[in-house]
Amino acid sequence: MIKWKFPQQAALPAFDLFWYDGGMKPFACEELESEGKDIPDEGLLLVGSKGKILGGFRGENPVLLPEGSTMQGRDAERINSAAIDRKSDIWVDAMLEKKQTSGSFTRAQCITDTINLGAIALRTGKKIDFDPGKIQITNDTQANAFLSRTYRPGWEM
Asked: Whole-angstrom Cα distance, residue 79 to residue 67?
């Protein structure tokens, strides 16, 4: 199990992200437990200040918990099936219009870095404190060896 602590950012409050891997999963939340249900083997659970949303591995088929509930001040929205069919054109349209998509590669580095730091924490068996400005793990100098690699001759970058 990995826990990332993200500080407040421009458009986001501070939040914690938990990752369960290798067959591990959290206990069922109260809303599922009261319905005699368990957390699915794969999926995501978003816990907010006004409610919880349970979805599949990629967030598909989201459900408000408890099931059938609605969030105060929010109307249930239906996704237009035409919009789903249109998703395949978003990438082409972005290239033609020279715009970024919502799934832009410009965001890929921070997501990849986050997952890789989680892998370092698993390998060291320790909490990792990372300074992105210095690109350095500050609480375990030996763990910094996992931030780069020495390539074999002929495989250099």
From this structure: 18
Q: Residues 6 or more apart from 66 whose CB is under 8 A from it?
A: 31, 34, 35
Residue 15, strand partner residues: 6
Token digits of residue 35: 């319905």
Cα(128)–Cα(140) distance, rounded to whole angstroms?
7
How far apart are alpha carbons 122 and 115 in whole angstroms? 11
Phi, psi of 94 (to 5 degrees): -60, -40
The pLDDT-based confidence of 153 (bands split at 50, 70, 90) is: very high
Categorize the per-residue pLDDT at 24 as very low, low, confident or very high, splitting at 50, 70 and 90: confident
pTM summary value: 0.64
Residue 139 has pLDDT above 60, yes or no: yes
Q: In degrees, to the nearest 5, what angle opens at C-alpha 89 toward C-alphas 88 and 95?
A: 120
The whole-number pLDDT of residue 88 equals: 61
Q: Residue 66 in contact with residue 35, Cβ under 8 Å?
A: yes
Residue with token string 């990995």: 2
Residue 96 three-state SS = helix
